[in-house]
Amino acid sequence: MNAAQVLIDGRWRAADAEGTFHAENPAKGEALPLAFPISRWSDCDAALNAATKAAAELRALDPAKIAAFLDAYAANIEAAADSIVAAAAEETALPVSPRLKDVELPRTTNQLRQAAAAVREESWRNATLDLEKNIRSCFAPIGPVVIFGPNNFPFAFNGVSGGDFAAAIAAGNPVIAKAHPLHPNTTEQAFKAVESTGLPPATVQMIYNINNENGLKLVSDPRVGAVGFTGSRNAGLHLKRAAEDAGKPIFLEMSSINPVIFLPGALAERHEQLAQELVDSVLAGSGQFCTSPNLLLVFETPQNQSQAEVFLAKIATSFTERPAQPLLSSAGRQQLQRGVTALTNAGAQLVTGGNNAPGEGYRYANTLLRATAAQFLAAPHDLQREIFGNATLAVVVNTQKELESILGLLEGNLTGTVYSAKSGAAQSGDDAIYNVIAPLLRERVGRLLNDKMPTGVAVSPAMNHGGPYPATSHPGTTSVGIPASIHRFAKLECYDAVRPERLPAILKDTIANPGTWRLINGNWTKG
Amino acid sequence: MNAAQVLIDGRWRAADAEGTFHAENPAKGEALPLAFPISRWSDCDAALNAATKAAAELRALDPAKIAAFLDAYAANIEAAADSIVAAAAEETALPVSPRLKDVELPRTTNQLRQAAAAVREESWRNATLDLEKNIRSCFAPIGPVVIFGPNNFPFAFNGVSGGDFAAAIAAGNPVIAKAHPLHPNTTEQAFKAVESTGLPPATVQMIYNINNENGLKLVSDPRVGAVGFTGSRNAGLHLKRAAEDAGKPIFLEMSSINPVIFLPGALAERHEQLAQELVDSVLAGSGQFCTSPNLLLVFETPQNQSQAEVFLAKIATSFTERPAQPLLSSAGRQQLQRGVTALTNAGAQLVTGGNNAPGEGYRYANTLLRATAAQFLAAPHDLQREIFGNATLAVVVNTQKELESILGLLEGNLTGTVYSAKSGAAQSGDDAIYNVIAPLLRERVGRLLNDKMPTGVAVSPAMNHGGPYPATSHPGTTSVGIPASIHRFAKLECYDAVRPERLPAILKDTIANPGTWRLINGNWTKG
């Protein structure tokens, strides 16, 4: 079988394949020539054995070597950027610029370098010393991490280069990555940038695809330390149950409709500008962002009615005028169509779009739907369905009470945004509403924004790319932002009365690394 | 029905009971006169509604009030100590002194006060500010926390006063506690020490018992924020699945056999002293500690054979000589007998004990079992069964290889201990073995000890009372030790470009509290 090779235990080799698959070029709507293997369990088993060995070796390694690996990987990705970007553009139809080459790839290498810096600094280990009682603890590697990357960020969330990858490696774990079947060649190209830098050969391993049964078996295998998953709610929930039943920590990012609230004063003050911002955000990446606004809550009153309607009309016009960009896949377009149909079946009115768009490839018309607050409140489950793509639902609310009721019925989301007026009487009016609704929204989202669209996710220690279930599986964790994202893939190790010479370096009374923050007798201390 | 009252929404009232139960006096082996209700779902439902309201109110409250409540609760427990201790002594048969009055109760109030101090200091919130990007995040309350306390620590792990309680309240959450049915009166007595200190009435609620079906319904209810559980593996796994299927974070402490390794040099050097320490540890609380040593790995060589055998003989003699203390319940004694029988069925030899002991109440003879390394390796699953009570299994190993093999087969545990020689050639010999086996043990335990029995669990920021599955449900968390234990009951809240006046106090540029550690632009900063 002439299919691409998997990387297991440091060696590119033919998969033990039960079949092959091809990615598509979504801009043309045709299959790509390269064949990729669907691995049988024996490939997973071999990877797990090799990872177990690598995990033990990594634990004994100087962290500087792990940091050097992450830096070198970032540099190699940059050196191979042209081929990686070309592969991604072909498999995803996402624009090379501005996006793959000048936004997502630099973001990805930046994240790898931030992870490297965290490994060098060692503060992520949260070393805690109680010198009086001679008890000491710190975070340490959790064991082999299996990572499933999503379809929508071929670099920044890829299992071989993204946030989960960087976090799992930074914590000192080997990674077994499952490529997303929509961009196997991208994954292979990125992955070929892995260079030997003195790490165990099985530190990073990659398979292209496995069947569902083997997926469940993989995440629940005794050799696994933890699992990272970014993708659909349906797939996520199946993996979640399998992993959790086996006692394996699994961190999932699954779905989010990212409500954006426009208060009356904001619409009165700057509805043209807001429409522009919103359109740019909803259509970014053809709406295929985890944080894409799927639900607009447009607060229309007798005073701002004309501006609110102009706002909605302007969005509709822009949606109609802007050419539809290709979606990631044929299946994604069908899923989007099903979502739009489900929303109209639940009472939403189709304002524009709602069908496939002309042009090559898997295009769907930019779609705006509209519903009343009463409609939303009558069908809150059906009308907060995630529609992954270039479509969004505007719910027009007329009273604060309606807005409060809607917020009270929202599921967990990654983000929630409020736009409010910035000056004058409009500001005080909006502020009064904000003070009541922000606490309600706060409870339902991981990241609360003001006057800013949620689609950008900065790599910052203060970022939370997480949120209450079902956006993720635990509202206390984040998949972006170092060091918090690293802690997901760490276990807590305590040393009680352990003899000084046997303590790990990070927990000795004095430490060589001058940059490390440690909590000693209740005080954060450096060096 | 003349049963005790439950506390729901700030009011002691009759339960909506489907039946009643009585606790036992395990020292006498007879039922106690007080009747306690088994609540129907309507009691849970009422508590959940009240807790939802309390959660919203608590979020808006000055943390100083929560701290004051925890301090006042500790003081009230102390003021009512006599009746609380008397109730516990009657229901558990644990000694008043040294234990309930002078060890466990002070430990419990100390923990409540440490939680109060953490609330006042606010460093637990892990406030992280990226001033350049204007992104800020902190931990915040997760929502109503349901707590199931265990049978073995009527104060220190009780759902109304223990570690999970202190952590959940400190995080700003209301608590719904389910009393353990073996000590309902203790729980009621402790709980009556809850005084109104300006907190919402439903901040702490308590029911005595519910049937299994309602237990599963309770932990998976949409109104729940998280669950804390300490108890048996069987009950824990059922609750785990129900909670996790509903997307509810659940933190469980379930089982542990706490291996204690005696290296050859240590036995040669101080076997008499070690036997004494071991006996004291195994028989503490009649062996009903989460961290009680259930598995001794005794390294016997041609050189130390006589001392190793004296060591084992001395343990057997002490076990035989020391009077058996009552166990917590009749069911517990039956379970212990089943465990001992299972171990002998799996090949272990009964050295002493193995049957009910004379004397009033539920007593079981102090029991020592013995097996060879070969036997353990032939039946590793059956021979690492937790035996909850005054029994322990000594496995005699003769080679380092055997020891390594055994450690490689251990499940996750709370603790693991190594005793080694402290001087001379014996020390270097043991050190060489330690260097190989400690990393293996390290991977399987939450807390690694040297030359110290694991039964004491200090309340220290550096403590880890946790460990790999199935000891707990997540190896990155601990149920003892502040602030880490608080983080389990918190969610991560991020503020992105939120206007300065709308930020919570903890995330503003400057903060009033001079004691709060915050991570600002990567540096831990106080005040």
The outline of chain A comes out as globular
Strand order of the largest sheet of chain A: 16-17-18-15-14-19-20
Task: Give the overall pLDDT of chain A as a whole number.
Answer: 96
Question: Percent of residues of chain A in helical segments?
Answer: 25-40%
Structural class of chain A: alpha/beta
Cα-atom radius of gyration of chain A: 24 Å
- How is the biggest beta sheet of chain A arranged? 7 strands, mixed
Summary tags:
globular; homodimer; 527 residues; alpha/beta; seven-stranded mixed β-sheet; five-stranded mixed β-sheet; 16 helices
Please provide a brief summary of the model:
With 527 residues, chain A is α/β, with parallel strands linked by helices. Chain A is 39% helix and 20% strand.
Describe the 3D structure.
Two copies of one chain form a homodimer. With 527 residues, chain A is an alpha/beta fold. Chain A is built from 16 helices and 23 strands. In chain A, a hairpin with a 2-residue loop joins β22 and β23. In chain A, α9 packs across α15. The radius of gyration of chain A is 24 Å and the shape is globular. The model of chain A has no long low-confidence stretch (mean pLDDT 96).
SSE topology:
2 copies of one chain form a homodimer.
Chain A: E1 5-8, E2 11-14, E3 17-21, E4 24-25, E5 30-31, E6 36-39, H1 41-59, H2 63-79, H3 81-92, H4 96-121, E7 128-130, E8 135-141, E9 145-148, H5 163-170, E10 175-178, H6 184-191, E11 204-207, H7 212-219, E12 226-230, H8 233-245, E13 250-253, E14 260-262, H9 264-283, E15 295-299, H10 305-321, H11 330-345, E16 349-352, E17 367-372, H12 373-378, H13 380-383, E18 391-397, H14 400-409, E19 413-419, H15 424-442, E20 445-450, H16 484-487, E21 490-496, E22 517-520, E23 523-526
Parallel strand pairs in A: 7-22, 9-10, 9-12, 10-11, 12-13, 14-15, 14-19, 15-18, 17-18, 19-20
Antiparallel strand pairs in A: 1-2, 3-6, 4-5, 7-8, 8-21, 16-17, 22-23
Helix pairs in contact in A: 2-4, 3-4, 3-6, 4-5, 7-8, 9-10, 9-15, 14-15
